[in-house]
Known about the structure:
By secondary structure, the protein is of the alpha/beta class.
Amino acid sequence: MSDKISRRSFLEAAKVAPLAAGLVAVGGNAAIKENQDVLEVSPTPKFNLSPWLYMQFMEPLGATDGSVAFAWDNRRQVWKRDVVRMTKDLAPSMLRWGGCFSSYYRWREGVGPRSERVMMDNLLWGGYESNQVGTVEFVNFCQQVGADPLMCVNFESDGRKQWMKDPFGNIRIGDAAEAAAWVSYCNNPGDALRKKHGVQEDTRIPMWQLGNETSYDKNGFNMETAGHVTIQFAEAMRKADPSIDLIGWGDSGWAPRMIEMAGEHLQYIAFHHMFNPGAKKDSVLQGTEYRNDPDRTWAELMEAWRPHEAKIKQIREETDKYGIPLALTECHFALQGPNRCHVLSSWAAGVAMARLLNVHSRHGDVLKIATGADFCGNVWQVNALMIPDRQRPYLMPVARVMQLFRNHVGNEAIEVEHCPDGLDVTASRTGNAVFLHVVNTNRTRSVSVDFRVGGSEFKSAKVFQIAVDPDFEVWSATHEVLEPEELTVPQNGRWDFPGASVSAVELKLA
């Protein structure tokens, strides 16, 4: 028997009528196919997909969450081996260091001999930061796990006076000269301070973000000031290394003016989206109420992609005419409740996050950097990787879907031309391999499909699938139930996607 699975054999074996030769127009620009079970994609590439759509975001969160401190082995002065191993499995394409922490971070306190590193008051997140993990350690971690480093600089404390000094009067503001010196320390092997510290390893950081949520504080910089400071930082940092890429801040309607003022210095415009799909007063997603009404919980979570896509569309509309790529350098559900928030441990939330990742792919023509979670910690449920005290680390549901999609994705987006009801699908390809990211948005009902890629035949078809009870919750490393199962599509080409499943399909074209 031939090892090729053709469209004809798909349809004949499944006893499904072939597609009609003609399409019925709807509204003048759409079409309905007679066979509603066909999942059809076009093999023609639309645009390149960036690997950085699977970024992770690492920020020392002080007393709020163990975060970086729990990932570091102070006794051995190395990253914990199980954290490195688990992060390799997660396979983030990029890691970002910073966040609000950057607005009062003085990088020189975290380099050089450990005995000389200066502790700092973590002004927003509480407690003291030892600075035993600094620039060199961060880049080393990125290298160990195969991720590109992205650094967020102290952008004159983003104009926030409360972060310019600590309670003891120590200056926490970082200027353009300090940022330029940081670039030199990382990227110039002949840098004097670097040589003094005896840093021999490769610490190059090719991408830097200027400003973090600069527009979110009415007492901080206004747009005009932020634009001028962006230019100052860009010019100073490029003197240290002309090859670096820079990301400017453009949220809250700032993007057009930022591009007009400083666009010639920037390669990307950044925005963030921490949003609460349970913001309504009667939402079942608040606290632990979700456990009492699984159907309503599912219904609310399955709509969470809508405000997220609305935010991306808004930024697109503001920047489309300028042709500058977008960077979503922070993104997660900001659900209220214990530890932000228990529902995020459920597989239902994992399915919802898979829909957000599909939104990112659909906007991949302009969205080139994106994430769907914070990175590591031991408290916040928004983290992708949890590091409990005296237990093995484990991946949250959001990390499982990021891992699945990241490991089975092409480098060019292609069009989904027909999708059966109940499925949320994006498609991509690399060479003769076609990849489908499939989310079954039905809580319990399966959806059967026949695959079609234009008129192409398939040599093989595999499905990597996570299909568990949406009420299942992950609270320890003992739960391996969210490991994707590798399955082979039968010769007749018919496939059932179970309810509440997230799948990556690989079709090898003849």
